[in-house]
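Entry 14: structure prediction run for MacB-like periplasmic core domain-containing protein. Input pasted below.
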Amino acid sequence: MTMPWFNPWFWLAGITFSLFTGIVAGSYPALYLSSFQPLKVLKGNLRAGRFAAVPRKVLVIVQFTVSVSLIIGTVVVFRQIQFAKNRPVGYNKGGLIEVRIDSPELFRRYAALRNDLRNSGAVVYMAESSGSVTAQDGGTTNFSWPGKNPDSHPLIMSNSVTHDYGRTIGWKLSRGRDFSRAFSTDTSAIILNESALKLTGIQKPLESFVRVNGKEFRIIGIVKDMIKENPFSPVNPSWRFGGRSLANALHRFRNPGHYFLPDCDARCPLVYERMA
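Run finished. Output tokens:
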């Protein structure tokens, strides 16, 4: 979760609320004191009117109501924050580094980069993905399954990954198996998340096939839903085909002289920092 520090509407709303609160909070004492008659009070000539206590009673009730509302609001916000912090993200974000491949040169040298990092002991697993772990990057409505309503075209988020992706991020399988180089047919295999399984209503997913953009894929596994972007929002249906020292890994990644990633300090964020 982040604060919109650079959003002008955020600052305008904050300043307006502060001014309004200050004016309302100071209005009653100012008006009350301006009507105060100390000379009559000291001489004992000031007599309270029949309805003199009504504004005071109303004010006490209003203040009590506002106080209770603020307490309830604070508890609700605190519980929402705790829910977002403690909600399982569906993968192991600790020690996970994401590198953005935004140049053809780095893409061509990915295999050499992977071998270099693994041989040095900087990483345990490394995999490629067409999208970020923490963001929804794309999807399709051209997704069909047995028994689908022909008039239904839900958006299913998609992500192309390599075999080691599941082991790299530590996602959790609830059924079936992960991608494996031992199965040559995995190039036509697909893994759904639990939200996609619920949407499709497939009773025996590991025995079923789906079609994506006209191509048939066999379902080999179901993974737990993974939280992306907003931790308060429901998880979108999606599909995917396809104890080392963190300090040492970051040092090797972010070394300015590294011939693969000379500017990795700005391009290799820690996943748990982005989810904080």
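Notes: Strands lie at 139-140, 143-144, 156-160, 173-176, 189-193, 209-212, 215-223, 238-241. Will compare against the previous run tomorrow.
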